[in-house]
Structures are given as C-alpha cells and as structure tokens.
Write the structure tokens for this entry.
Amino acid sequence: MTARVLKKDGALVASIGARCRRLEWAVKDSVAQLNWSRSRLIATCVTTVVVLGSLVSLTLSYVMFLDLASESPYVMDAITETPLTKRIAAHAQNETLGFGGIAYLSMPYRFDRQDAMELLASVYGLNFTYIPGVDGTAIVEKAKPLHSYWLRPPELGCWRAHVNAWRYLLESDFETLLVLEDDVDFDVHVHDIFETLSKQMQHNRIRITPPTEHEKRAAPYGLDWDVLFVGQCSDHSNDDRLDLVHLYEDPHAPSRQDTFFHFIGQMESLGIKDGNFGKMRAIAPSWNPVCTMGYAITRGGAERLILDISYRGITGPVDIDVIRKLQQGIIRGYTVTPPLLSAWRVDGAKDSDNQALEKDQTKLGAGNLNGYSTSLKMSARKEMVKILELHNWNDVQRVLPLKPNPTMTAAQEAEEQDEQRKAEAEKKEIEEAWRKRKLEMGQIMEKWGG
Ligand SMILES: *[C@@H]1O[C@H](CO)[C@@H](O)[C@H](O)[C@H]1NC(C)=O
Ligand SMILES: *[C@@H]1O[C@H](CO)[C@@H](O)[C@H](O)[C@H]1NC(C)=O
C-alpha cells in the first residue's frame, strides 16, 4: 500500500518537473519574441506580481470573512432549569454522584491501586464498590463466549470483569451504575461537574422522547441511554449526526493547555471554538469511544450489553465490541468531551495489567505519586496529597501551656523562642494556603466541613 503510494508520488513529481521545464521554455520563447527593453520587462513583472498579490489577499480575506460569518452551525444549548431539575441534579452531590452505585475494577493483586481508589473515595466523599478483576487464564474453556478464541488472556479477563460489573447492576436494585477502572483520576470538583452534567442530561438534543415523570423525579442523568461515556481515551463523532451535538458550559472544563490533544480535535469538530476551551463541554452520541476507564450504564444497558457481548458471543476486546454495537445502532450511548474522568498514568504500559504480562514480578512498582493525568483542571490525586498534609509539630494548639525546661541555658531558651516564632510564621503561611485552597474548592469542601 505505502510502496504503491510512493511509486505514484514519484511518477507525479517527475511529470510535474517535465511540465515546469516546458513552461519555462515557453516563457523564455515568448519573452524573446516580445523584444522588450530590460526595464520594461521588470516593470511589467512587478505590476503583474502586485496585481496578482492583491487579488490573492482579497480572495483570502473574503474566504476568512465567510468562515467567520458562518462561525459554527452549533449554538449553545440553553436549558431551562426548574426547581425540579435543580433538585434532582443536586443528587450528584451524594456519595455515588447521583448514580445508583459506583463500582471499580482492579486485579486482586493490585493492592497499590486499590489503596489509591479507597483513599480517593474517602477524601472526596464517594462510595466505591470493589469488583475484582479476572485472570483470563483462569476462565475454563466451556465458560468462554462464542468467538473468544483469539483474545489474549488479559483481554479475556478484562471482558469478564466488565461483564461482572454489568451483572452487579442487574443483581442490585440500582437503575444506573458508574463503572471505573482502578487507575482513574478526576477533578476535585467532581460532584459539581456531575451536577452540571445532570442538568444537561435531563434535557438534551440527543433524547428521543421527553423525560418521563419517573426520570424527572429519580434519574439525575435520565434513563434514555445504555452507556454514558465520561472517561474515554478518545472518541470521534458520527459525522452524519452532528446536528445532535449538545454544547454546555462547565466552569471546571480543562483549559486548552490542559486538554489531551485527542480531545482538542474532537472538540473542534463538535463545534467548540478556541475561545470556548476551558468553558465548555459537548455531549454527543457515542460513535467510537476508546477505553473503558469510566462509563455509566443503565439497567437496560446492562441487559443489552450482556446479551450482545456475552450471551451472543463476542467479536473482539470489550471496548472494541462496544464500539461495534454502538455503530450498528443496537445500543445507545452518550459521550461527554472533554471527559470528566482521566487515567492516572504511572510508568506507561509497564504499569498496565492489560498490556504487560499479568503478575510480572520483574517490574518494580513505580509508586502512585509518580503519575500524572491530563484533561483535568485540578487533579484529585494530586490535590489529595495536599489536603491530607499535616504539620503536627508546628500547627497543633496544645491545650495546656508547655512546661519550662529546667536544664535549658538562657541562650538555648532564646534559640527555642526563635524556633517557636519561625514555627508560628510557618503555621500562618500554611493556614493561608489552606484557606486559599478551600476557597478554590468552593462549596464541596464546605459541605465536607473542611
Ligand atoms: C444518590 O442519588 C441517586 C439518584 O437519586 C440514588 O439512586 C442513590 O441511591 C444515591 N446514593 C446514595 C449513596 O445515597
Ligand atoms: C457504600 O455502599 C455500600 C453498598 O451500597 C454500603 O453497604 C456501604 O454502607 C456504603 N458505605 C458508606 C461508607 O456509606
């Protein structure tokens, strides 16, 4: 394929070269025939260049004017907030972000990642239910779905763990479940971000029917979808249905600089212009969402997914299979861009339990602290380290006055007092930083009584 293109390119270059040479000869011939003086020739050339240049720049500015005039076919989707929509959206402030539950998948031996997840849950007022990841080699032949023979064991295990999460929803009395993988990160304002999304989800362009009375009262994100992608690595839109893209404002959207490059192109294609980066997100029908790091499902979605990606057999790794079903139109998905959840990357693919050999003991843990995430304004994993920071020897007010130390000399005492003054100053500084952070974290921190 590549070789053929190259060969074609070579032939094209040669033919362009030949044409240029012929043109050069023709020009030389005509100039000779004209028999003009050198200065007349130069003057004519300069005039021609100036006239052509003005024509080109005029055309360019006209095209730019047209582009600006047409700006974007999309308009911000104004939604009407009613006391009812506000009340139901406020459920996003609860421990399961307004979903019936939040489950996370983690291989049983990844204690490091489980610790991190439980820590995040505790610090940010969330309740995560642990669902053990599955070792693909432990699935017996008879239990494997149809057409699964070509999946690598980690892919098979990954598929199984997600089906177990879907099954967990069916076995519960939840209507929705948010499914996370154990390397997820999110913004510290996660509750507010989901509250904003909830208001949009109740009324959006993608919906086919207006929300039912039950949805209005009990379903912060509506129930008209099977899968809601809020943590994809990338997606691209169904170009035939750009009319369904729903744009909304979110003060916690990441700036352009913080946004992973995949999403920048995606956002532009969805109609978010440069000036609106850091202010807006888009909800679009899911078309090609890659990764399964964070998505919600409804009960109907869990039923369809288990039917299509287990009961009937499978046709590829679980995320690819979901994409196939979305494009076939047999499940309905929404994707939020830029996503609300991101992956915390530690040590690249080596740290993955999917790419690397399972339980590879030769890899040393890189440590939770050495990671990073993208497309978040304020990473919850980074901030939690600061939130839990303590300076016991500096900033604790002792209840009773300290006893004087009888063996201390005057010089030592002076030094001690000096130390104390420094400690006081440092304490003030820390308190000031903490106060600022609390201001930044706004309402949520206040809710936690910080
Ligand atoms: C959070 O809100 C949702 C939606 O109302 C509800 O289904 C869920 O049970 C709530 N979670 C908790 C922990 O209260
Ligand atoms: C978290 O949710 C589970 C399942 O709904 C529940 O049993 C548990 O009590 C909750 N934990 C907290 C701390 O609320």
Observations:
- DSSP finds 13 helices and ten strands in the chain.
- Confidence is low (pLDDT under 50) at residues 1-10, 65-74.
- The first strand starts at residue 101 and ends at 106.
- The two ends are 61 Å apart (CA to CA).
